[in-house]
Amino acid sequence: MSLPTSLKELVKKLIPRSSLLAYHRAVAWLAATLYGNPSRKMIVVGVTGTKGKSTTSNVIWHVLTQAGFKVGLTGTVNYRIADKNCISPYKMTMVGRFKLQKMLRDMVRAGCTIAVVETTSEGIMQHRHRYIAYDVCVLTNLSPEHLEAHGGFENYKQAKLELFRHLERLPRKTLRGKVAPRASVINLDNEFSADFMAVGTYPHITIGTNVHSDICFQRVVESLHGIDFVINDVSVHMPLLGKWNAYNGAVAVGVARALELNEFVAITALSTAPYIPGRMEFINEGQNFSVIVDYAYEPVSLELLYQFGRKFVPQGKKLITLISSTGGGRDTRRRPLNGKLAAQYCDEVIVTNEDPYEEDPEAIMNAVFEGVKEGGKGIDNHAYYIVDRREAISKAFELAREGDIVFLTAKGAEQKMCVAGGSIPWDDRAVAREVLRKILTN
C-alpha cells in the first residue's frame, strides 16, 4: 500500500532535498541495470508538455505503427506493447522506475524497435527520466500548471527543459548497424518555444500554424466527426474531436521527420488515428442526447472543451457539465476558476467529487461552488451540489433532453478514485454506461 499523501509530504520535509535526489538517482540506475538498460536497444521518443501528452503519444504510436514499426507506449491513459493495449491502472503518467524499466524491457522482448514515453515534469524532478536513452524529445506546449509542486512556473519550465538537456548529454546510439537519429520536435506557436529551441546542438523540428514551421498546418475545420485541415499542403481528415488535435497530429508528423520516415505516409496515417480512451470519448447506449467523457480538469482545457460544446450544441438545447477540481492537496487556485468557467459556458452545472485523497471532499467542492456562484449560478439556479459522483452523473442524465450535450469532466479513463486511506475502483465511462442503461430500461 502506498503512503497517504500527507505522510509523503511530511517525509519530504524531514529528509534533505539532496538526499531525496540521490535516492531517486540511485533507484533509477538500479532499475535500468536490473532490466538490462532496455532503452539503449530501441529508439525512444519522449513526449512532454502541459497539455496533450497522452493524445500526442498515441497518435505518434499510430503513425509509426502504420509506417511498419513495432512500437511501445507508456503514459497516463494506456500502455501499448506492439499490438497489445491496456488502460493504465495507475493514477500517474510516469510510473515507478522499476515498473517503467520493466515495460521497456517487455517492449524489447516483444520486438519493438521504438518506444514512446510520456515524460512529466514531476517525473523529471524525481529523476525517472534518468537512464532512459532518449533519441527524440517533443514539446507539445507549455502553460502554468503544477505550480505548487514545483514552487512556481520558472521551476516548472526548467523541469521540462531538463529533458532536452538530458537528450544533449546522452551518447548517440548505434542500432542494427546504423547511428540513430537525434532531434527535438517543438511547438513553435507556444510562447516559450525559444527556450527549448536554445537547448541542444541536435536538429529542432518545428510544428505549428506559423508558415515558418517545418510542419505547418492551417485551415482547421471542426465537426462532431473530427477535424479537417491542411498540413504541409496535404489535406487530411483526422477523426479526433477538437481543433487542438491538429497540433497533436502535426507533432506526430514531426516525429516521423525526425526519424527520417516518409512524411506523406505519416500525414496519411492521421486519417485513421484511433480515439484515445477518456479523451473526448462519446458514450452511446442509444440515448437521444450526447455524452462525452473528457480528462479536462483545469481552466485552460475546460475552456477549450466548453467552447467546443457551445459551438456544436443545437440552438435551444443545453450544455450540461459535471465539474470538480484536481484532487486534494493539488493546485487549490484552480478550484473557483473551474467553477466559474462551467457556470459561464454551461446551462446546467453539477459540482461533485473527484479525487479528494486525504482532503475533505466537501472543502474542495465548496471552493469550486464559489466559482460557480461568481459565474452567475447557484442552488435552485441551474447549479447542483452532489458529493456522490454516481448520483451526480445520474442527475446530469436526468436533466438532459434530446439534442443536449453532457460533459463528464476531470477523470477521463482513470480506473480508480483516490480517497482517504487508499482508492476505490472507478471509471466514468463504465459508470455512465451503467446509469444510461438503467435509465433506458425504466
What does this structure look like?
This protein has 442 residues and is of the alpha/beta class. It has 15 helices and 22 strands. The protein folds into 2 domains: 5-272, UDP-N-acetylmuramoyl-L-alanine:D-glutamate ligase, CATH 3.40.1190.10; 281-441, Mur ligase, C-terminal domain (Protein-Tyrosine Phosphatase, Chain A). It has helices at 5-14, 17-34, 53-66, 97-109, 121-125, 147-150, 153-169, 193-197, 245-258, 263-269, 299-312, 334-345, 361-374, 389-399, 428-441; strands at residues 43-48, 71-74, 78-81, 84-87, 114-118, 136-139, 174-175, 178-179, 183-187, 204-208, 215-223, 226-231, 234-238, 281-282, 290-293, 319-323, 348-351, 378-379, 382-385, 405-408, 416-419, 422-425. The two termini are 41 Å apart. The model has no long low-confidence stretch (mean pLDDT 93).
Q: What is the structure about, briefly put?
A:
The protein is of the alpha/beta class and 442 residues long. Helices cover 39% and strands 21% of the residues.
Keywords summarizing the entry:
7-stranded mixed beta sheet; 22 strands; 2 domains; 442 residues; alpha/beta; globular; Protein-Tyrosine Phosphatase, Chain A; UDP-N-acetylmuramoyl-L-alanine:D-glutamate ligase; 11-stranded mixed beta sheet; single chain
> For the report, how would you describe the main beta sheet?
11 strands, mixed
User: End-to-end distance, in Å?
Assistant: 41 Å
Helix content: 25-40%
Write down how many β-strands occur, each being a DSSP E stretch of 2 or more residues.
22
β-strand percent reads 15-25%
CATH topology of the largest domain: UDP-N-acetylmuramoyl-L-alanine:D-glutamate ligase
